[in-house]
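Hey L., structure's done. Input below.
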Amino acid sequence: MKVSTKEWDVRCPEKLRRLFPKRVGYYFRVDHETAKRVLRILSDAYEIPAPNLDRLPKGRKEYAMYNGENHTVLIRDRSHLKSIFHEFYHHLESATEGEYNSHDRRGGSSSLAWKFADKLWAAFTSK
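Output:
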């Protein structure tokens, strides 16, 4: 959502769709290399530098998180694609210096980053 207009700016590049030719079922678990490709594709679509990608340290309860200090998305092995979309939106806010608002409010479904992930997921899974 752009802060000024409150309109969602959801871009689902064809390159992203081609990365997953068989879209069957709800769950799309991605490995580290595929997550890196997804982040590059989305970054190109929004014309921002791609974030770094690293693995979450063992013992962390989160499935994924974004560190804005070093522009790094941290994920567990085999993270869900929708989690990658969510963390990308935090990076989008950081890379555009707040042009996009990814505020997590109380977390969960009220999070603007999750709302973005839901909208991108819907665009990605539509025919």
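Residues 1-5 have pLDDT under 50 and may be disordered. Residues 13 and 31 are 20 Å apart (CA to CA).

-- N.
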